[in-house]
Amino acid sequence: MTHRFWAGLGGLALALLVSIAPVLAEVSTSGTFTGTQACPAMRSMRKATNPGKVFVQPNTAYEVLAQNKSVASHYRIYVDGAEPPERWVAATCGTFDPNGQVARAPGAASAAAVAGGVRGTHLLALSWQAAFCAKRPEKTECAAVTPTSRSGTQLSLHGLWPQPEGKKYCDVAPAVREIDAKRAWDQLPEPEVSAETAKRLAAVMPGVQSRLERHEWIVHGTCYGANAEAYFARSADLTEQVNASKVAKVFAQSAGMPLNTTAIRAAFDEAFGEGTGERVSVACSGRGGNRRISEIRISLAGDVVGTAPIAELMRAAKPEQPGCPGGLVVGPGQQ
């Protein structure tokens, strides 16, 4: 009796697993799903949850992100304006076109990029110069940090770092790596850039006065996939886009005061589009009441080596952890 009971229970469990397996599976696909009738757009098929009571609409095309199995009973679609936007809809509620495309504004990221993106291929690291100079006041570039100077009111380029993190020193001779390890940056070879790019770089990277650009080229630029001119021109371009936005204003207006990471991410959302703030991680030094914001790191993916605007590159990357919750924005000359 007992044996038959447990055997029956085991068989029931197996049957349940088999019955829900097709629901839990997912097959990556693309195309469009055009509604033929109003149907619920579910967050979860298994639980039939529908936050916001969202429905697909007849004669409306939605971008398809996946299907639940090889012969789909449900499609995962992107519903613009829904929260969250990724939803499941029954296949019987519309028609699937594997070659279909949803019209988007020029330069807009695809729904797949907005919904999930890919792991960032580069990090743009931007420093708050006053925080750096509070720790290293002897550095040449720190004498120019004032409440009205460029380096005192804008974010400074630390570097553009190809990812993953260990991707460094590509085809760099051991002797050169040894020089870099000793921080003898003035002995490193000078990157070949045009006079125009050198001028732009000096404006966004105060550290050039300490030969920071030589270090960044040897460690990271050599893995960028282009020459030094292209690498630094692109690095300057991306930094200029951030500094021309509300993000730099938020930092400048907060000098001498605390600033939380939520506000920083919100500034990115306002400047570059909703969701871009989730691609920003904040780095701090110190703890508790002595915690100071030292740097922000922006995750990028897509056409980083090309000319795509930073908003598109951010939307194409997966969200990142926020990092530290915030801290003091050191004012120029503040210790």
Summarize this entry quickly.
The protein is an alpha+beta fold.
Explain how this protein is built.
With 335 residues, the protein is an alpha+beta fold. It has two domains: 27-102 and 110-115, SH3 type barrels; 122-329, Alpha-Beta Complex (Ribonuclease Rh, Chain A). The protein contains eleven helices and 14 strands. The chain has helices at residues 2-24, 111-115, 129-135, 150-153, 174-181, 195-204, 212-219, 228-243, 246-253, 261-272, 310-315; strands at 27-28, 32-35, 39-40, 55-56, 61-67, 74-78, 86-90, 94-97, 122-127, 156-162, 257-260, 280-285, 292-300, 326-329. The strands form four sheets. Strands 1, 2, 5, 6, 7 and 8 form a six-stranded antiparallel sheet that branches. Strands 10-9-13-12 form a four-stranded antiparallel sheet. A two-stranded antiparallel ribbon has the order 3-4. A hairpin with a 6-residue loop joins strand 12 and strand 13. The longest helix has 23 residues, at 2-24. The protein is elongated, with a radius of gyration of 25 Å. The protein starts with a helix and ends in a 6-residue tail after the last strand. Mean pLDDT is 86; it is low at 1-25.
Question: How would you summarize the topology of this molecule?
Answer:
Layout: H1 2-24, E1 27-28, E2 32-35, E3 39-40, E4 55-56, E5 61-67, E6 74-78, E7 86-90, E8 94-97, H2 111-115, E9 122-127, H3 129-135, H4 150-153, E10 156-162, H5 174-181, H6 195-204, H7 212-219, H8 228-243, H9 246-253, E11 257-260, H10 261-272, E12 280-285, E13 292-300, H11 310-315, E14 326-329
Antiparallel strand pairs: 1-5, 2-5, 2-8, 3-4, 5-6, 6-7, 9-10, 9-13, 11-14, 12-13
Helix pairs in contact: 6-8, 9-10
